[in-house]
Every structure is written in C-alpha cells, then in structure tokens.
C-alpha cells in the first residue's frame, strides 16, 4: 500500500485544502477509509496544533496523546468516526463526528465522556464457541449472549467493556451518517422493510439501514453536533 495519496483523491469527508500540496499521508488500515483520517492530518490541518509532519512527530514523542484510551506515537494512526482523541497536557478531548456538510469534525467533549466509545455492530461471528461482535471501527468484543445483539445495534464501551446495549428499533435516537440528511439527529418513527422512517423538527423521511447509527434510547448517550 502506498504511504501517500494525492490530495485530489482524498475522501470528501476530510476537511482540508486540496490545492495546498500534491500529496497527503494515507491512514493506516483499521476502519472505513471514507470515515477515517490520519492523525497527522488531524493535528496539522484540522486542530492546527502543528505546521508540518515533523512537528506532529515531535508532539507525539514528547507528549501523551491518546486515541480511545490508548497512547499513540504513529502519525498515520487512523482516526475514525466516533473515535476520541485526548491531550492530557492541555486537558482537551475531542470526538470525531460527521457534520451536515459531510465533513469529519472534531467536537470538544468533557473528560468524563472521553472514556465513552460508541460503536455500531456491523457483523456477528463465533470465536472458539463465544459470540463476537464486529464493530464499525475494527474493534471486536466478546459476549456470552450473542443472540441478544443484532447487526445495526450499537454498544457503548467503557474501558473496552460493554456498558450499554442500544437496540436499533422504533423510538430510538439515530445519528445519520450517510445520504441526503447526513449529520442530522432524528427519532426512528417506523421500521419498514429495508428502510427506516425518521422524524425531526416535524420533518419525516426514509433512510436505509447502513446510514443509521443508533445513539440512544430516549436521548443520545454521547454529545453530538447540534
């Protein structure tokens, strides 16, 4: 795999200038390419805490930078949707979300919330007789009662353990990650075959399952874009 990609070929979700330089770092494997960005781009182009890749390397070596609770030192480390970046030296914490302009945005969150990682179940499997949930960010979680979980549901992780299981069902709160209404928060009003009817601010529309990220039962379990 090539280490860099041309700026003209980067996903539209990357909120950076495409005519500044010819190439940009490619994120390491681990999640959806369209909803992920390398850490160097986050620090240099989005948060603007550095001007060059070399400065980002210095920051990672000299400061503790955490992604989802684990320290990272690789500038191409993949940062994806719902990931949490923590900078203890400045007591800053950010969650990666997609906004209504279809751009990845880093939203400041409280320190307590930085321990909460919301993940969508994209697949289920069996590993040595135990149920395994395969999550949207490449993580896997073992569970005893795999039949209770369905693809499309979400789990709220704290210290890599499931704190809450949020089912994709009528009445739940959904965060839309694709389609015409991307970035919006809506209530699932009805479940149809192959589609979900959503309602928000007296508007109603249908979305397909892959564009729905369930975030809570009565209200969102995490802070989201308004």
Describe, in plain words, how this protein is organized in 3D.
It is a single chain. The chain has 226 residues and is mainly beta. The chain has three domains: 4-109, RNA-binding S4 domain (Structural Genomics Hypothetical 15.5 Kd Protein In mrcA-pckA Intergenic Region, Chain A, Roll); 115-166, OB fold (Dihydrolipoamide Acetyltransferase, E2P) (Beta Barrel), CATH 2.40.50.740; 173-216. Helices cover 8% and strands 41% of the residues. The chain contains two helices and 19 strands. It has helices at residues 39-46, 53-62; strands at 4-6, 23-25, 36-38, 66-67, 70-71, 78-80, 84-87, 92-98, 104-108, 116-127, 130-135, 140-143, 154-158, 161-166, 173-176, 185-192, 195-200, 203-207, 212-216. The protein has a five-stranded antiparallel sheet with strand order 5-4-7-8-9, with no helix packed on it. A five-stranded antiparallel sheet has the order 12-11-10-13-14, with no helix packed on it. A hairpin with a 4-residue loop joins strand 11 and strand 12 (140-143). It starts with a strand and ends in a 10-residue tail after the last strand.
